[in-house]
Amino acid sequence: MYRANPADGIAWITGASSGIGRGVARELARRGYDVAVTARREDELRLLASEVETHGRRAFVYSGDVTDRVAMARMVADIEAKYGVIALAFLNAGGNFRDPPNDFMGANFYRTLDLNLYGVTNALGPVARAMQQRGRGQIAICASIAGYGGLPGAPAYCASKAALIAMCESLHVDLGLQGIFVQAVCPAYVKTPLTDQNAYAMPFILELDDAVQCICNGFEHKGFEIAFPRRTEYLMKLVNMLPTRAYFALMRKFGMRRAR
After folding, report:
1. Euclidean distance between the first and final Cα of the chain, in Å?
2. Torsion angle (degrees, nearest 10) of CA 225, 228, 232, 235
3. CA 8 to mean position of chain CA atoms
4. Strands across the sheet with 35-39, in order?
5. Which residue among 12, 17, 50, 127 is least crowded, i.e. fewest CB within 10 A of its CB?
6. CA–CA separation, 239 vs 112, rounded Å?
7. Rounded to whole angstroms, what are the CA distances from 217 to 27, 210, 243?
8. What is the structure's pLDDT at 257?
């Protein structure tokens, strides 16, 4: 299966203005890549570009909204026309927007799905088509361990991440036959601005730098799934093998702990 390397082209990272995306952009630059970075906050991308330059690499700033399908297609075409082919794409943009208790399945439910699922596919389509023409490429999509099963208090987030995992499984076969290596990145809790919103205890939470190393090492050495930390990965997979009655009993306890 094809593995990208800096000699083959550049890396493109969405959701690069903070958290995992920003960290991965810096680390890929340290490993020799020029990077194209995308997010809505251009000021943060400019700061990231200056950080990338300290590693002797170039960063190409593309501010934009991944929920804009037409803009993503134009962006991929512009990146490749100006700076070279995208050998590695890390489609990372995502979030979790919660509705107030009195607005069940309200606007933020759909906002979460729009960003996490369709924001990924809007970027995935054009970059995959470009790679198909060359017959090679590597695409990693940031899902989550939360996509392994439904967790209390996060219906939209879990649904979107489960959909990404299933989509990656399908594409790993379909695009793999065309020389394109598709990976699903499934972190557990990582210390980022997203998890800073959580008011509950997060078991085995990882520091951002540790998570970034897991991801970038996974690009180079892992197979389909890049999941971490291992103890949380195995625990969640085991929990989802339980009979439904036992699973829901455990989830109720988890939900009550979060609500305290």
Report:
1. 47
2. 20
3. 22
4. 59-63, 35-39, 10-14, 86-91, 137-142, 180-187, 225-228
5. 50
6. 25
7. 10, 11, 35
8. 64
Provide the whole-model pTM.
0.93
Structure confidence at residue 200 (pLDDT): 66
Superfamily grouping for domain 6-235? NAD(P)-binding Rossmann-like Domain (3.40.50.720)
Q: Is 226 exposed, middle or buried (CB count within 10 Å of its CB: 0-12, 13-18, 19+)? A: buried
Give the domain ranges of the chain.
Answer: 6-235
Helix axes 208-221, 19-30, angle to 10 degrees: 60
Tokens 């803009």, located at residue: 71
Residues in the chain predicted with pLDDT less than 50, given as ranges, are: none
Asked if 247 is an active-site residue, the reply is no
Give the model confidence (pLDDT) of 214-225 as tens digits.
999 999 999 999
Q: What is the pLDDT of residue 91?
A: 98
Q: CA separation (Å) from 108 to 104, 157, 189?
A: 9, 10, 21
What pLDDT does 208 receive? 94
Give percent of the chain above pLDDT 90: 85
Residue keyed to tokens 């939470």: 205
Residue 216 and residue 174 in contact, taking contact as beta carbons nearer than 8 Å: no
Catalytic hit among 33, 62, 148, 157: 157
Q: How far apart are CA 37 and CA 15, in angstroms?
A: 8
Report the C-alpha gap between 123 and 132 in whole angstroms: 14
